[in-house]
């Protein structure tokens, strides 16, 4: 199959004239005539009726034109979609984010980016860190912004954006625990509030306790970090929370920080991309803005 023949056929059928079709194609009339003669020979039928006034489609030519026209329209629509994808000012960016990453970093950065590029639209899906990575692998999102810990392998690539510190907090019922530095072992009889086992945060604290030869078995599981703060505030238990999110509660005296002997390792918000896939210009622009933003944040840690 010679696709050039069908493209030429399409323009001859539209213009009903070999010379006009040649002009539209940037070709010459003899080449157009030759191409149509060759196509008719290959198909074994006449596609055009020639006359001094031009050409017209034969019944079988009309039949072929329906298929060729549909194919050309699809190609043109595909070309337009590609142009839209490559147009930075009219793109759609799909982002997968863990709740912690969304609250600590992503929302603020999206706000400033949207002011600069108001026609770019966002579609944000909030998952646990493992779920976000799976969505990236399946091509459901352009890139991921998640909190560590995260285990990735090529072609995925991780770029640290910001570093944050978790703290242990308790409500008024547990204020005595904040009177001095405690060991984890001292706290094992108290109820903990945490996220579900399939989340990166829960995995992080399971490992943290294991490093101290202890088991982490929260009595209350909630779906979001904000809910940990609320549960703690109403004395349903003690729980770990990013210090930036706990700061206002602590300042107002609604919760207190419980200092630990065992240092809580710092965590990171990371940008994760799939290097095997091509991003739209809009997604590239936002990805680059997020990465650049990390370079001037004072708490950035490239590790």
UniProtKB/TrEMBL annotation:
Transcription keyword on record: yes
Keyword match RNA-binding: no
Keywords: DNA-binding, Transcription, Transcription regulation
Transmembrane segment boundaries: none
CDD domains for this protein: PBP2_LTTR_substrate
Domain HTH lysR-type: 1-58
Pfam families hit by this protein: HTH_1, LysR_substrate
Coiled coil spans: none
PANTHER family: HTH-TYPE TRANSCRIPTIONAL REGULATOR, HTH-TYPE TRANSCRIPTIONAL REGULATOR CITR
Stated family: Belongs to the LysR transcriptional regulatory family.
Protein name: Transcriptional regulator
Organism per entry: Coprococcus catus GD/7
């Amino acid at each position: 199959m010679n696709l050039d023949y069908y493209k030429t056929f399409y323009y001859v059928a539209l213009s009903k004239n070999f010379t006009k079709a040649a002009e539209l194609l940037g070709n010459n009339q003899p080449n157009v005539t030759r191409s149509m003669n060759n196509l008719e020979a290959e198909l074994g039928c006449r596609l055009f009726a020639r006359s001094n006034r031009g050409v017209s489609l034969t019944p079988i030519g009309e039949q072929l034109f329906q298929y060729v026209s549909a194919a050309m329209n699809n190609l043109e629509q595909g070309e337009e979609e590609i142009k839209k994808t490559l147009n930075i000012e009219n793109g759609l960016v799909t982002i997968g984010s863990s709740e912690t990453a969304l609250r600590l970093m992503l929302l603020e950065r999206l706000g400033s980016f949207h002011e600069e590029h108001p026609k770019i639209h966002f579609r944000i899906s909030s998952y646990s860190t493992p779920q976000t990575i799976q969505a990236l692998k399946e091509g459901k999102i352009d890139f991921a912004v998640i909190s560590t810990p995260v285990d990735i392998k090529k072609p995925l690539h991780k770029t640290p954006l910001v570093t944050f510190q978790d703290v242990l907090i308790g409500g008024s019922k547990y204020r005595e625990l904040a009177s001095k530095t405690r060991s984890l072992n001292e706290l094992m009889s108290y109820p903990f509030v945490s996220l579900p086992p399939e989340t990166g945060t829960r995995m992080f604290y399971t490992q943290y306790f294991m490093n101290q030869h202890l088991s982490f078995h929260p009595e209350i599981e909630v779906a979001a970090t904000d809910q940990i703060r609320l549960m703690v505030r109403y004395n349903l238990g003690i729980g770990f929370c990013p210090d930036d999110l706990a700061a206002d509660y602590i300042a107002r005296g609604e919760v207190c920080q419980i200092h630990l002997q065992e240092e809580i390792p710092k965590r990171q918000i990371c940008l994760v991309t799939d290097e095997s896939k091509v991003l739209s210009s809009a997604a590239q622009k936002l990805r680059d803005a997020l990465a650049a933003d990390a370079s001037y944040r004072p708490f950035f840690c490239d590790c």
